[in-house]
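Please fill in the sequence for the structure shown.

STRUCTURE ENCODING:
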């Protein structure tokens, strides 16, 4: 369970970093790429958090 929580935290951190890069990017293609990566990492983190919640229930 600790590993899953750690994974969710790492995914959220990576997503936040991608969002920062997205905001700093001047190239529209790179901005879109990092926005998509950030969204996918958020979705993965949510899946892990949902799995943790399901195990607790």
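FILLED IN BY: designer on duty
SEQUENCE:
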């Amino acid at each position: 369970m600790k590993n899953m929580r750690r994974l969710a935290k790492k995914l959220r951190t990576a997503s936040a970093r991608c969002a920062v890069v997205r905001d700093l990017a001047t190239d529209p293609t790179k901005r879109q790429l990092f926005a998509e990566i950030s969204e996918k990492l958020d979705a993965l983190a949510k899946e892990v958090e949902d799995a943790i919640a399901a195990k607790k229930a």
